[in-house]
Design a protein that fits this description.
With about 425 residues, the chain is mainly α. It contains 21 helices and no strands. Helix 4 runs antiparallel to helix 5, helix 4 packs antiparallel against helix 19 and helix 14 packs antiparallel against helix 17. It is globular and about 60 Å long. It starts with a helix and ends in a 13-residue tail after the last helix.
Length: about 425
C-alpha cells in the first residue's frame, strides 16, 4: 500500500468532543497508575519498619529508597517491551496491559506479611511488587505520552499533552492527601501497624476500574495510519539504527529534568523531616499544598508552549535550575518556618514546570508514529532509572556521609547538562513529526 493509499484509508480526524473524551479517559487511567506508584513514597515513613530491621532511621530509609530505585530498574524493560507492544498492537492495548501489572503489584504490597513473620521474605515480596510496578510504569509513560500527544490537535498539543503530568502529579497528590486524611483519623501507632496497607488496597481496586475504562478508549489516528502503511516494525534495532540522535536527545534532555522533579517533589517530604526537622504531618501538608499548585501550573505552561514554542520553556527551566537549586535547598536546610519552607518548595516546583509541562510532547514530536511509543518510552526510562530513581538514595547517601550539600551540587550540574541540550536542539513544536492537524 502506498503512503497516499494509507492516508486515504485512515479514519478522519476526530472531532473535538471525541478528542476530549479520549484525553479525559486516558488521563484518568494515568492518574490511577501514578497514584499506585507514588503511594510507596508517601507512606514509606510508616511501613519501613514492617519490611526492614528496626535500627537507624536513616538506614531504614536508605533500604526503602533502594527498593524504590530497584523498581526503576524494570522501567526500561517495561518501556522496551510495552513500547513495542503499543507501536504494534495499539496505544490502547499498551495502556490496558500496564494498568493490569500495576494492580497486581499494589495487591501484593497490601497483603504482604512483615519481616517479623516471614523474615527477609518480606522485603523480597516488596521488591517483587515494585519490580512489577516498575514494569508497568515503564510502559505507561510511553503509551500515555504518545496517546495524549496524538489525540491532541496541533494548535493545542502542548496544552492537552501537559495533562500527562497533571495526572502524574494528581496521582502523587492523591497519595499525599490520603496520607493527610489517615493521619487525621488514625493514631500514628495504628497507621504504622496496619493503616499503611489501606492506600495499596485502594490502588489495586482503582486499577481494576481503570482496566475496564481503558478497554473502551478510541485508538489514535497516528497508530491507524502507521498500521496501514509499509513503515518498518517497531523494535530496539530499528530505534537505534534509524533514530540514534533522537534517542540520545531524549535521554539527555530527560536527565536533569527528571532528577530535579524527583528532588523537588518525591524526596522533598523526607528532606523536610530528616533535614529541616519538621514533623511528618507538617512535611506532608507542605508537600500536598505545593503539589496542588504545581499541578495547576502544568496546563498553563503547556498552553504557553503552543504560543511561544517548547524550547523557551525548557531553557528557562535549565537556567533557573542551575542558578537557584543550591540556594533553595540551602535555605530549606536552615528554615524552621513552615510558610517559608512552602514558598521555597513552590519556587523549586515553578522552576521545574518548564520541563514537566512539555516533556511528553517534546519527545513524542521527535519520532514518527510507527516507532513513537518505543522512542518516547525507552530512552526516557533509561534516564529516569539512572537519575530519577536513584535521587533519594543519592541524597540520603550524601547525608549519611556528612556532606548533604553534595546532593544540591549534583542536581545543579545535571540540570546544567540538560540545559546545554535544550540550547542546541530544534524547537519540536515548529518541526513536529506528529501528522494530525
Amino acid at each position: 500500500m502506498t503512503r497516499r493509499d494509507a492516508m486515504a484509508a485512515a479514519p478522519p480526524t476526530a472531532p473535538v468532543s471525541g478528542r476530549l473524551k479520549s484525553i479525559i479517559g486516558g488521563s484518568t487511567g494515568n492518574l490511577v497508575e501514578w497514584f499506585d506508584w507514588y503511594v510507596y513514597s508517601a507512606f514509606t515513613l510508616y511501613f519501613v519498619g514492617h519490611f526492614f530491621p528496626k535500627n537507624d532511621p536513616t538506614a531504614q530509609l536508605l533500604s526503602a529508597a533502594a527498593v524504590f530505585a530497584v523498581g526503576f530498574v524494570m522501567r526500561p524493560i517495561g518501556a522496551w517491551i510495552m513500547g513495542i507492544y503499543a507501536d504494534r498492537r495499539g496505544r490502547k492495548a499498551g495502556l490496558t496491559l500496564s494498568v493490569t501489572l500495576m494492580c497486581t503489584g499494589s495487591l501484593i504490597i497490601a497483603c504482604a506479611p512483615g519481616i517479623e513473620t516471614i523474615g527477609y521474605g518480606a522485603p523480597a515480596l516488596l521488591v517483587l511488587a515494585r519490580l512489577m510496578q516498575g514494569l508497568s510504569v515503564g510502559g505507561e509513560y510511553g503509551a500515555s505520552a504518545t496517546y495524549l500527544s496524538e489525540m491532541a490537535g496541533k494548535e493545542r498539543r502542548g496544552f492537552f499533552s501537559s495533562f500527562q503530568y497533571v495526572t502524574l502529579i494528581s496521582g502523587q497528590l492523591l497519595a499525599i492527601l490520603l496520607l493527610v486524611v489517615l493521619q487525621a483519623v488514625m493514631s500514628e501507632a495504628a497507621l504504622t501497624s496496619w493503616g499503611w496497607r489501606i492506600p495499596f488496597a485502594i490502588g489495586a481496586v482503582l486499577a481494576l476500574v481503570v482496566f475496564w475504562l481503558r478497554r473502551g478508549l478510541a485508538e489514535t489516528q497516528s497508530f491507524e495510519k502507521a498500521k496501514a502503511s509499509d513503515a518498518p516494525k517497531s523494535g530496539f534495532g530499528t530505534l537505534l539504527r534509524r533514530h540514534p540522535r533522537e534517542t540520545a536527545l531524549v535521554m539527555l534532555l530527560t536527565a536533569g529534568g527528571t532528577l530535579a522533579f524527583y528532588a523537588y517533589s518525591i524526596y522533598m517530604q523526607k528532606f523536610l523531616v530528616n533535614t529541616s526537622g519538621f514533623s511528618k504531618e507538617t512535611a506532608t501538608q507542605i508537600n500536598a499544598v505545593t503539589l496542588f499548585a504545581f499541578m495547576l501550573l502544568q496546563p498553563v505552561a503547556g498552553g504557553l508552549s503552543d504560543r511561544i514554542g517548547r524550547k523557551p520553556l525548557m531553557v528557562a527551566f535549565g537556567v533557573a535550575g542551575v542558578l537557584f537549586t543550591y540556594p533553595i535547598f540551602s535555605a530549606l536546610e536552615r528554615t524552621r518556618d513552615a510558610t517559608v519552607a512552602g514558598l521555597l518548595v513552590m519556587a523549586a516546583l515553578v522552576i521545574v514546570t518548564g520541563y514537566t509541562s512539555i516533556n511528553a510532547v517534546v519527545k513524542a514530536e521527535l519520532f514518527p508514529a510507527h516507532i513513537r511509543a518505543l522512542g518516547v518510552a525507552l530512552p526516557y526510562a533509561l534516564a529516569n532509572t539512572i537519575f530519577g530513581g536513584t535521587a533519594e538514595y543519592v541524597a540520603l547517601s550524601f547525608k549519611q556521609h556528612g556532606w548533604e550539600q553534595g546532593f544540591y551540587w549534583y542536581v545543579t550540574v545535571m540540570i546544567g547538562v540538560s540545559l546545554l541540550v535544550y540550547l542546541r536542539m530544534r524547537d519540536t513544536g515548529k518541526a513536529s513529526l506528529i501528522a494530525e492537524d
